[in-house]
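Homework help board

Subject: predicted structure for assignment chain

Our instructor gave us this sequence and asked us to write out the predicted structure in token form, then describe one feature. I got the tokens but I'm not sure how to describe them. Can anyone check?
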Amino acid sequence: MVIRALLVMIAALLLAGCGGTDDDAAATTETTVATDTIGTGSSPVLEGASTDPVVVKGTSTDVSLLTDVRAAAQDGYDRLVFQFRNGLPGYDVRYVDRPVVADGSGDEVAVEGGAVLLIRMEPALDADLTQESAPQTYTGPQRFTPTTTAVAELVRTGGFEAVLTWAAGVDEKRPFLVSTLESPARLVIDVKSS
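My token output:
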């Protein structure tokens, strides 16, 4: 009886020590917990990474507003981060065949790399249409080459009818893992680089 009580107390103390910040306890679509560690070299485990599509339906009708896009090489993977205001949109992350076409116009969009990982977010935009002048909420580049190992280029391919789309040109079709973070809302895509 005393041993059982002691074991229960030890288990309770261990569980209490497992708490963390919002970033550490972020909801994920896979079994991995991610932290936005661009530039720190911290490495999540990419167990469960695959080349299969990851689709999560949005839970809000509010349009999420993109405020930042960044990418950096980490230990064994490249991390892509899409940061939002007004919460996180639904998303569909998958490899697609070429040609990649722009949302709305259907114009062909060139994307560097041997494979294209398309990131479709909905409802989401990079301009606040509720304001009179529809100011841009994301003012960074629409196309850029990050300092990464596997990801060759990131390109905005559309923002049309509350669907925001970016394409990541990857050197080859590599396994990826999708997760989300809060405070601020972020969509995180880790692409294996080794």
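Reply (TA_rk): Your tokens look well-formed. For the description, you could write something like this. Helices lie at 2-16. That's the kind of observation they're looking for.
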